[in-house]
């Protein structure tokens, strides 16, 4: 690298001296000759140039006699150097870098009028200073490079330490959570990638927390619901036990009550089992191409006797024949629950209208009634497990509060959607939309 600098600088210097030498030769050639008088008139300028550039300038006449020496040592002496002779002979400028002497020499002919050669200018420049300068430059560059590399290594060290520290902190937080501190969350630490990771991780933890809470709530609800009939049975059995000579009629009546409670317990367990089945993976769906018209008609036929008890008119209106890919058992369970609710939460002489329609993508089932309706504030919650608007009424009608949760799960498993529209004391409409073709 050092040699590269040196060569570059020497080449530059050589080129600049060649140019300046040509300019000087041109100036001198304006004089008629290089007699003492003329030389005296331009020697001042050359002297100045010589001292500024630390160069020695000689002017040699065709007799090889030095007529001007800016170092004033060899004036009037003869100069028969190789380059001078060459320049006079060839009448061309000669340039040379003499490595051994450590100098640059440029010899330029000065032409007078009629193109005759008046003399030659010899410019000698020591390259010692130039080399010294190039060594200094290369040394300084080297020092700067070392300093820069050291600084970069230091910077890399510091930043990697900072990043490692941030990672350590994040991993410590994760470890703490894994050890069971589920309420703990990863704190942000200013690194966008880690922040992003922390946000996603915290989101997952929040979801798991909510899931865990809803699971706990479900277990507590299940226990409560299952316990109620058992408590009633115990009360009934205890009161029979406490009556020494209870008449057979009382026994029969109490036993019937106990059987009713067992039936209720069994309904709750059946509903719970349906719900658990619905919660399982989608792979459990047994999809077949089904005639929906027939399927709905069968559901209504089975529910007709319950409707007749309250003299409720049950009407099915189909706008077109529909065949769709569904799990018939789970689909029927959902539609039965909706129609059963429309009958249960209705009035004597009421009506329930079920309609079926389809477009090229979905089929739609609407279950409409003119029953008691659902107050607006309860409408969001009716799909929750065990949620009942009027507990006492629901119990009376044999409701478990699981029906709509089963309906929703079944529809979602079919990639469908359910909408509710209801007005208190006017009626309720549930609209179900299910894709005609099931895509996993
Ligand atoms: P349940 O076993 O109590 O019927 P569901 O989950 O089927 O439970 O329904 C939840 C609650 O929504 C019911 O308790 C009832 O208060 C209300 N509900 C459902 N369907 C209707 C309807 N068609 N008309 C009025 N209220 C309804």
Automatic annotation (TrEMBL):
<dbReference type="GO" id="GO:0016036">
    <property type="term" value="P:cellular response to phosphate starvation"/>
</dbReference>
<dbReference type="InterPro" id="IPR005467">
    <property type="entry name" value="His_kinase_dom"/>
</dbReference>
<dbReference type="Pfam" id="PF02518">
    <property type="entry name" value="HATPase_c"/>
</dbReference>
<keyword id="KW-0902">Two-component regulatory system</keyword>
<dbReference type="GO" id="GO:0005524">
    <property type="term" value="F:ATP binding"/>
</dbReference>
<feature type="transmembrane region" description="Helical">
    <location>
        <begin position="142"/>
        <end position="159"/>
    </location>
</feature>
<dbReference type="InterPro" id="IPR036097">
    <property type="entry name" value="HisK_dim/P_sf"/>
</dbReference>
<protein>
    <recommendedName>
        <fullName>histidine kinase</fullName>
        <ecNumber>2.7.13.3</ecNumber>
    </recommendedName>
</protein>
<keyword id="KW-0472">Membrane</keyword>
<dbReference type="GO" id="GO:0000155">
    <property type="term" value="F:phosphorelay sensor kinase activity"/>
</dbReference>
<dbReference type="InterPro" id="IPR003661">
    <property type="entry name" value="HisK_dim/P_dom"/>
</dbReference>
<dbReference type="GO" id="GO:0004721">
    <property type="term" value="F:phosphoprotein phosphatase activity"/>
</dbReference>
<dbReference type="InterPro" id="IPR003594">
    <property type="entry name" value="HATPase_dom"/>
</dbReference>
<feature type="domain" description="Histidine kinase">
    <location>
        <begin position="221"/>
        <end position="438"/>
    </location>
</feature>
<dbReference type="InterPro" id="IPR004358">
    <property type="entry name" value="Sig_transdc_His_kin-like_C"/>
</dbReference>
<dbReference type="InterPro" id="IPR050351">
    <property type="entry name" value="BphY/WalK/GraS-like"/>
</dbReference>
<keyword id="KW-0547">Nucleotide-binding</keyword>
<keyword id="KW-0067">ATP-binding</keyword>
<keyword id="KW-1133">Transmembrane helix</keyword>
<keyword id="KW-0812">Transmembrane</keyword>
<dbReference type="InterPro" id="IPR036890">
    <property type="entry name" value="HATPase_C_sf"/>
</dbReference>
<keyword id="KW-0808">Transferase</keyword>
<keyword id="KW-0418">Kinase</keyword>
<dbReference type="Pfam" id="PF00512">
    <property type="entry name" value="HisKA"/>
</dbReference>
<dbReference type="GO" id="GO:0005886">
    <property type="term" value="C:plasma membrane"/>
</dbReference>
<keyword id="KW-0597">Phosphoprotein</keyword>
